[in-house]
Amino acid sequence: MQLSILGLNLVYAALGVVLMWVAYRVIDRMTPEVDFPAELKRGNIAVAIAWSGDIQGLHADNPDLRWVAPQEGAILYSDNMLIPRSSDRVALAMRWIDWCYAPAHSAQIVSRAGYISAVQGAIPALERIAPALARSPLVNPPPAVLAQLRNFRELSDAEDASFTRIFLDAIGG
Predict the structure, then answer these.
(1) What gap in Å lies between CA 54 and CA 106, rounded to an integer?
(2) What is the spatial distance between Cα 82 and Cα 94, in angstroms, rounded to a whole number?
(3) What's the DSSP call for residue 82?
(4) How many other C-beta atoms lie within 10 A of the C-beta of residue 40?
(5) Which segments of 31-116 does DSSP mark as H helices, in order?
(6) What does the angle CA 9 – CA 23 – CA 75 come to, to the nearest 5 degrees?
(7) Per residue in 68-89, pLDDT tens?
(8) Any residues with CB less than 8 A from the CB of 96 and at least 6 apart, and which?
C-alpha cells in the first residue's frame, strides 16, 4: 500500500518508529560506548533512520552526511506539546504554546534546533535572523521533497486505545 493513502499502514509505521526507539534505548544501555551522533559525524554509519534536524546539526562536522526522503514517502514531522490532565496552569501552558507558535518565535526555535517548523510564516522570519539556515533543504525542504512527506492521521478512539495497549505492552507497562 502506498504511503500516499494515509491509513493504518502509516500508523503501524509510526508505532514501528516508537518501538525502534525503545529498542535503541535498550541497546544503548547494553552498549553505552556507542554514541550515535559521534558515529554519524565520523562516517561510521552508512544508513540510519534519522530526523532531518539531526543531520542538519551534525552537517558542520561531516558535510558528507545526507538526509534523503524515500521515494515511497516519509513522515513530515510530529510537533507535539502536551498539558498534563492534572495541571492547574492550563491557561499559562496555552500562553506558552501560543508564544512558541508565533512565526518570529518559531524561527528563533528553528535557528537553534535546526528542524522544520510547522508554523506558517516561520521561514520568512528565519530568513531575517538566520538566512543560511532558512535556505537549508533540511529546514526548508523544496516542493519536490515536501511532496514525498506525509503527516500522521488522527486515530479513532478505538485505534488510540488499541495502540496504547500495544505501546504499554512493548515498554513493559
Answers:
(1) 18
(2) 10
(3) -
(4) 20
(5) 36-42, 52-58, 90-100, 103-113
(6) 35
(7) 888 888 888 777 888 988 999 9
(8) 81
By C-alpha distance, which of 71, 74, 55 is closest to 63?
55
Domains of the chain, residue spans: 8-170
pLDDT, one tens digit per residue, over 84-129 is: 889 999 999 999 999 999 999 999 999 998 888 989 999 999 999 9
Three-state secondary structure call for residue 121: coil
C-alpha cell at 28: 544503548
Rounded CA separation 115/134 (Å): 10
What is the distance between the terminal CA atoms of the chain, rounded to a whole angstrom?
Answer: 32
Q: What is the CA angle 124-101-149, rounded to 5?
A: 70
**Based on the number of CB atoms within 10 Å of its own CB, is 155 exposed (0-12), middle (13-18) or buried (19 or more)?**
middle
pTM for the whole thing? Answer: 0.66
Cβ–Cβ < 8 Å for 135, 141: no
* C-alpha distances out from residue 104 to 25, 73, 80, 119, 137, Å: 35, 30, 19, 10, 20
**Residues 6+ positions from 99 with CB-CB distance below 8 Å:** 105
Look up residue 70 and give its amino acid.
P
Tell me the three cell numbers of residue 123. Answer: 521561514
